[in-house]
């Protein structure tokens, strides 16, 4: 009885806390602050952004307000629906737009956020205390859009339905792997959701961790797959944009290496093998190691983020005054849209970005000032900080990739250099590249990490 009363008391406290937080977030949403690409009136991604954040705020608040419990098998395939409109009901508050929201495996992602050390209130405030997102340019080859959270800690990425479906299928394996490997280099997923606009298509998206720390300028960025075909960013492109993401051949041409002493090298390669083994077992390929390099001697004096992150603040008050003076009747929504259309870009104040992110301390690869500091062969620290993470882990070796493999083997001489190969071969090549081309020293790494004929047993 006493235990039941304590649970009820905790539940009541949690609900009151999140009600206050919800009211706070609702009050803050009137003056939208958008970050990055200017979104003028009628831009569909403004509505998309609003719907994403509103849905996240309500869905995460609901599951976090409940008393914690153990996961069951049904949790991994669960899906909760929410409907939003201007009026609202007992489950959802009124919203500026009508849309439907679906929250997938909410209990699983609640437990994942806890394992990653993400505080639920922190998570909601970062994403939704004010609706600030930075759109990362135009969509990439996959057609996905990327958005930063207001403090640069989280990324929202739209994904294809097939990726969404595949993620749900592997979610239990991913969860079990993270539970056994708290220092995993795999991309950290915090939520899987879907929105649908009236008469519009369904849009699936994930919330995940930003590999790069908010407090450090990243001076060089590399996306390494261990393949060679098409894996070069032309030097003229690099000269135009020194902060562009470079690839495997750029890494080799610039003779870059990860400087890791014996202790850190062992941690890195052992975790890498465990993560790649899982990906191979799940029939996954086309992933890459994202490497960000921060020169600690240069620090932040280049002001990289000052030039790459911008905001614009819509001034709704001045618009409202002008409308009042003109005696023109209009809705609050129209006021916001007009303010967005007239807003001017300005640089973000990077001093307001968090210096220390608590959840990053829980992983050894983020423990050195939110990164993994280089060391020499005597394990002494060097003035270089690495940001490391395995990204793009939702691509199975399906019929599409098998067809791509067949086509490219027929049209290129370098059959081993193409990206679309079987997951076992992909994993072998990936590990070999890390041991031979990425690490500065590999004399103490077992031969099975370096020799093609010896790595197969990792993937049986």
Automatic annotation (TrEMBL):
Catalytic activity from the UniProt record: a 1,2-diacyl-sn-glycero-3-phospho-(1D-myo-inositol 4-phosphate) + ATP = a 1,2-diacyl-sn-glycero-3-phospho-(1D-myo-inositol-4,5-bisphosphate) + ADP + H(+)
Keyword Phosphoprotein: yes
Keyword Nucleus: no
Enzyme class per UniProt: transferase
GO BP annotations, alphabetical order: phosphatidylinositol phosphate biosynthetic process
Signal peptide: none
Keywords tagged on the record: ATP-binding, Kinase, Nucleotide-binding, Phosphoprotein, Transferase
Protein origin, superkingdom: Eukaryota
Entry GO CC: plasma membrane
Cross-referenced InterPro entries: PInositol-4-P-4/5-kinase_C_sf (IPR027483), PInositol-4-P-4/5-kinase_core (IPR002498), PInositol-4-P-5-kinase_N (IPR027484), PInositol-4/5-P-5/4-kinase (IPR023610)
Domain PIPK: residue ranges: 40-438
EC number of this enzyme: 2.7.1.68
Molecular function terms, GO-annotated: 1-phosphatidylinositol-4-phosphate 5-kinase activity; ATP binding
PANTHER family: PHOSPHATIDYLINOSITOL 5-PHOSPHATE 4-KINASE, ISOFORM A (PTHR23086:SF8), PHOSPHATIDYLINOSITOL-4-PHOSPHATE 5-KINASE (PTHR23086)
Protein name as it appears in the record: 1-phosphatidylinositol-4-phosphate 5-kinase
């Amino acid at each position: 009885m006493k235990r039941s009363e304590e649970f009820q008391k905790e539940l009541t406290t949690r609900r009151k806390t999140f009600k206050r937080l919800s009211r706070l977030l609702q009050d803050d949403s009137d003056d939208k602050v958008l970050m990055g690409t200017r979104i003028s009136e009628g831009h569909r991604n403004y509505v998309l952004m609003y719907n994403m954040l509103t849905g996240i705020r309500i869905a995460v608040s609901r599951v976090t307000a409940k008393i914690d419990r153990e996961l069951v098998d049904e949790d991994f395939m669960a899906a909760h629906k929410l409907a939003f409109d201007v009026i609202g009901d007992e489950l959802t508050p009124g919203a500026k737009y009508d849309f439907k929201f679906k929250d997938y495996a909410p209990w699983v992602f609640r437990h994942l956020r806890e394992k990653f050390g993400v505080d639920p209130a922190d998570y909601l405030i970062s994403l939704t205390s004010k609706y600030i997102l930075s759109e990362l340019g135009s969509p990439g080859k996959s057609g996905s859009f990327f958005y930063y959270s207001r403090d640069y800690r989280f990324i929202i990425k739209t994904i294809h339905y097939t990726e969404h479906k595949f993620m749900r299928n592997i979610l239990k394996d991913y969860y079990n792997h993270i539970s056994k490997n708290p220092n995993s280099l795999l991309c950290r997923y915090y939520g899987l959701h879907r929105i649908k606009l009236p008469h519009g298509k369904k849009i699936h998206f994930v919330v995940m961790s930003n590999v790069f720390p908010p407090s450090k300028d990243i001076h060089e960025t590399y996306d390494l797959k261990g393949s060679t075909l098409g894996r070069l960013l032309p030097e003229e492109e690099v000269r135009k944009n020194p902060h562009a993401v470079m690839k495997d051949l750029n890494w080799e041409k610039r003779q870059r290496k990860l400087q890791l002493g014996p202790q850190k090298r062992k941690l890195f390669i052992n975790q890498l093998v465990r993560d790649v083994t899982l990906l191979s077992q799940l029939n996954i390929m086309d992933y890459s190691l994202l490497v960000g390099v921060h020169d600690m001697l240069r620090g932040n004096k280049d002001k990289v983020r000052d030039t790459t992150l911008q905001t614009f603040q819509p001034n709704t008050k001045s618009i409202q005054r002008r409308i009042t003076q003109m005696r023109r009747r209009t809705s609050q929504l129209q006021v916001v849209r007009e303010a967005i259309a007239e807003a001017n870009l300005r640089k973000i104040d990077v001093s307001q970005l968090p210096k220390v992110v608590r959840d990053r301390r829980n992983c050894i690869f983020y423990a050195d000032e939110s990164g993994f500091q280089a060391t020499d062969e005597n394990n002494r620290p060097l003035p270089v900080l690495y940001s490391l993470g395995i990204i793009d882990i939702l691509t199975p070796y399906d019929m599409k990739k098998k067809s791509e493999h067949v086509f490219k083997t027929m049209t290129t001489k370098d059959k081993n250099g193409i990206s679309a190969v079987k997951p076992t071969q992909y994993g072998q090549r990936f590990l070999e590249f890390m041991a031979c081309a990425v690490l500065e020293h590999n004399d103490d790494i077992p031969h099975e990490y370096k020799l093609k004929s010896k790595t197969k047993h990792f993937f049986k």
